[in-house]
Amino acid sequence: MDNPNLLDNSKEVEVPTNLTCEICIEPMTHINKFKNLERCVHPFCRDCIAKYIEAKVEERVAEVPCPSLNCEKLLDPLSCRRIIPAGLFEKWCDLLCESAVLRCKSAYCPFVNCLVLILNECGGNITRSKCPNCKKLLCFQCKLPWHAGFGCDETGEMRNENDILFGKLVERNKWKICPGCKYRVERNKGCQNIKCRCGVLFCYTCGKIKNSCECCRRIVMVEAEEQDGHMRNGGGVNGLADAFILLGMAFESPELNKDIFETIYYHALKASCELATKDDPYKTYHGSPVSKGILQPDMWGLAPSDHWDWSDLREMISKNGVINSLLVAPMPTASTSQILGNNECFEPYTSNIYSRRVLSGEFVVVNKHLLHDLTEMGLWSPALKNNIIYGNGSVLKIPEIPDDLKAIYKTVWEIKQKTIVDMAVDRGCFIDQSQSLNIHMDQRNFGKLTSLHFYAWSKGLKTGMYYLRSRAAADAIQFTVDTSALNETVQS
User: Which residue range or ranges hold the RING-type domain (predicted)?
Assistant: First the structure.
């Protein structure tokens, strides 16, 4: 008799854990996680996978690879069927069928009144073949009517005028022949490495299989030399909002924002210059703006503060150069922030309360800095925690909390987005590539977004906006609030 306990243990049990989508860098639940049946388990949310598949189908890619870096698995179409529109799934199936056909050896019937596609489903090299539609004989190798007693190389006179015209078109446009399926391939954009619809990768310069020719080796060597020669290094920040809080300053403080990024840029330049005294500057240094004494603030027409000895640093750079062509480029830090326990990059806090899932269950967690300050003041209590939950992570409407503390713990929804743009502009002159700036709008619309874009442009902001986040996507999960404790606190 079967053991019922064994049957129960065989069921897959999902343990709630923190998951982050590798595409949008947003937290997700197990329910919203895409499952690539029996292939790979990389964390992606369903929405991102659906958009990814749509883009690939638009590019006419039949076998869609997993978007995870270095993963060689393919997405399982049946696993994706429930998360994409029916029309998109149908297009994908058509591409898969077309791809399967192209992988087979095929020929079109050469007779004008037929022209059906004929597949070699038996394998091997076929010469004499009968069209299943018109029943006429043809040569499967040279794609011409059957030439009994003649070799394929002796049938040149049998080719009609269209074949000759097509040959001239191929020669004029310099189309290449795929070494796999032997069909002509046109490259209309992109690099010289071509992937034919039959799946073969080849070099468009010489027409040989990829990496079997000198062209590919030369391209790889040049790219490697260029990358090594520039010595790029995109330094950024993690937990800027935490730094503001620990210093007891509101997030909108413009002086601190500028001081932090000026300090980062100054010391990055100085360290790069010191390394250049031991090694030569990067290969394309000579002729660059830095080699001419032009630093990032100079390009903005701004002068740095007198906190640091910029004159001495400029003199050092003119003498020794720098070893890096790129130094400061703040990027999103959602994953590392979760590991380190800091807020993301230079983002304000979206809420002062959030949920944390561990093996033992789900817990409500209050901003650790706010919890520390309220405890130090003797204000912390379960009732106050209820108020913060009830306020959706905001402390602005809680009368027990002092005004100076409210200013420090404003969430991003309580800070004007023009202020966020102004802060990006202020630090822009100390960033030598770009900054990934998110915009948060409680009630978004095209008018607000367009107005904000024009405002950023008028301020000279040299970056695009990374994400537009709405309140619904960023709200803390609603928990059961003890209303009796809440009322008691408000009345007191």
Answer: 17-220, 21-67
Cross-strand pairs, 184: 177
CB 102 within 8 A of CB 127: no
Q: What is the CA 350 to chain-centroid distance, rounded? A: 22
Nearest to 430 by CA among 307, 292, 268, 231: 268
Token pair of 31 as six digits? 């329910």
Residue pair 379/399 in contact (Cβ under 8 Å)? The answer is no
* Helices vs strands, H then E, count in the chain: 18, 17
Buried b (16+ CB within 10 A) or exposed e, 26-50: bbbeeeebbbbeeeeebebbbbbbb
Do residues 368 and 473 lie in contact, with contact meaning Cβ atoms separated by under 8 Å?
Answer: no
Element (H, E) at 357: strand 353-358
Whether 165 and 158 have beta carbons less than 8 Å apart is answered as: no
pLDDT, residue 474, reads 44
Model pLDDT for residues 42-58, shown as the tens digit of each residue: 888 898 899 899 988 88
Residue 477 has pLDDT above 60, yes or no: no
To the nearest 10 degrees (0 to 180), the angle between helices 417-428 and 446-458 is: 30
Q: Which domains does the chain have, with CATH numbers?
A: 16-102 (3.30.40.10), 109-214 (no CATH), 231-492 (3.20.70.20)
Alpha carbons 259 and 147: distance in angstroms, whole number: 83
